[in-house]
Structures are given as C-alpha cells and as structure tokens.
Design a protein that fits this description.
Oligomer: single chain
Radius of gyration: 18 Å
Low-confidence stretches: 1-7
Number of helices: 12
Strand content: 5-15%
Number of domains: 1
Largest sheet: 8 strands, mixed
Distance between the termini: 37 Å
Length: 279
C-alpha cells in the first residue's frame, strides 16, 4: 500500500453513515456478510418481505460475474478489467478469478462507499505478474474515474478493457442520465473491449409479486433506491455493440454449466446478465 493510506482510511471512516442503508452493505447482508449496520439489515429485510428470493438473486449475480470473468480472461484473452461498483469484498472477486486464469491480468476497482474503501487492503492484492488497484469514485462522475492517475497507471486504455458494471446501473435513475453515463465510458474504450452488466428487472416476476411490490411502495412501507428495467430498456445500453451469445438473459442462463432443471426458477433471480463486445 502507498504511504498515507492510514490517513485515507481515517477519512473514509469519517464518511460512514450508519443510519442510512447503503446498497453495498445491504448486498453484503444478503450474501451473509457481517460488514453492515442495522439500517442495511432493516432495508434488506424489507425488500426480502416483498421479494423473498432476493438472497438467491444476490448469489446468482455473483456466480454470473465469475463465469463472465472466466470467459473474458480465458476465451477472449482480455487482460484488463475496470470494475465499477465493486461492493464489499467476498470470495472470488474479479481480480481473483481473472488472475487464476491469466496471472498477468490487471484490475482497477471503483467504489465510493467508505466501508468498501476500508477493505481496500483485501482488494489490493495481486499476483506478481499482474496488478490490482482501487479508486474512490462514483459511476455518476465517469470523468473522475477515467482521469484518475491510478487508473492510467494500471490500465492501458489503448488496449482492450472489460468494463464491469455488475448490479450497479439499476441504481441510476433517469435524472442521472444512465444511458449517457454508460456510453461515455464505452466511448473511451478501444475496439475489442467488452462491457459486462447485470441489471435488476421485474420482467421475470409473476404479476402477483409485481402488484404486491407496487402496493408496498405506494403505501410507503418499501423505499426504493433502484430502477428495475425491462429487457428492451437494458438492450439500449448496448446499441452499437456486439452482444455475445446467449444474449441478454437471466443471470442463471448465461453460459451456466448447471443443468436448467437444477437452477433456481427464473422468478427467483430477477436479474438480467449480458456481455457485449465493442467492434
């Protein structure tokens, strides 16, 4: 770690708001982690009451991430990864999976949650041949990410990069101009780069579940900080890109070696996954 990290971590800790739920900490709770607070757990349980399969969705999202990284590092030869919205470290993070396939892989993680940032030491480990780095930044400010010296020192933006947007874009509302933000990042990447995204959706839920959720939201019993989108809306993020087979599909269906009959039902994994190549 660089000199001054202790001061940085002290600053990050001072930004922690334990009274407000944060998506990264709530996700950590669903995955069975301990890096969360009462507000995160309360929010997680409120969502679980409306959508009891949320923990299954969280787990299947992680499995998709691991399969996608193995595909990119193994079959496409990608050696650079920009993972925005990293979340709290768990097992088999992007750098661990990529470097297990290709030890010379280079990874930059981006997140703005102070709890995540205090775990930077866990993320900033790497094989001797590769490199792993971390940036304190927000997807809503892509220029800050792209101009960061750490990113420029770690990744060569003249060579293909895998842009990882795992379970983060659905936290962008229309006022955030999500399509413009994603397009701005993609435009900087060279040809041969890839975009990997998982995105929450209501497409896969049955009508009764959707109606129940809507009633809970309208009644104020469920606070929503994410924007689920349809398959057609998600497809708009990939205009001009070559979508890799099998396309925009539920995360459980993307190149999954587990037989379909042994996977969770689609209604229990309300998340689409997609990998696309920039021509």
């Amino acid at each position: 770690m660089a000199d001054g990290v202790g001061d940085e971590q002290a600053g990050w800790s001072g930004r922690i708001d334990t009274t407000t739920a944060h998506p990264a900490r709530r996700y950590n709770y669903w995955l069975g982690g301990k890096d969360n607070f009462a507000a995160d757990r309360d929010s997680g349980e409120a969502i679980a009451r409306v959508y009891p399969a949320i923990r299954t969705t969280a787990l299947e999202n992680r499995y998709f991430l691991q399969r996608a990284v193995r595909f990119l590092a193994g079959e496409t030869g990608i050696r650079q990864f920009l993972d925005i919205g990293t979340g709290i470290p768990t097992a088999n993070n992007t750098h661990e999976v990529a470097q297990s396939v290709a030890p010379d892989s280079r990874i930059v993680y981006v997140d703005n949650d102070p709890i995540v940032l205090t775990h930077a030491r866990a993320l900033l480990t790497s094989t001797p041949e590769g490199r792993t780095a971390y940036i304190d930044a927000d997807l809503r400010d892509p220029r800050t990410i792209l101009d960061d010296e750490i990113l420029r020192d770690t990744l060569d933006l003249n060579q293909p990069v895998a842009l990882m947007l795992i379970a983060i874009v659905h936290f962008l509302f229309e006022a955030d101009k999500p399509y413009e933000l994603v397009r701005g990042l993609v435009d900087v990447l060279p040809a041969g780069s890839y975009v990997v995204m998982t995105h929450g959706t209501a497409d896969l839920n049955d009508a009764a579940a959707r109606d129940y959720a809507l009633r809970e939201i309208k009644a104020g019993r469920l606070k929503v900080d994410a924007m689920p989108r349809s398959r057609e809306e998600i497809a708009q993020f990939f205009t001009g890109l070559e979508i890799v087979e099998p396309g925009i599909v539920p995360v459980t269906a993307w190149r999954n070696p587990i037989p379909e009959e042994d996977r969770p039902p689609l209604a229990d994994t309300a998340m689409y996954g997609v990998v696309a190549r920039k021509p």
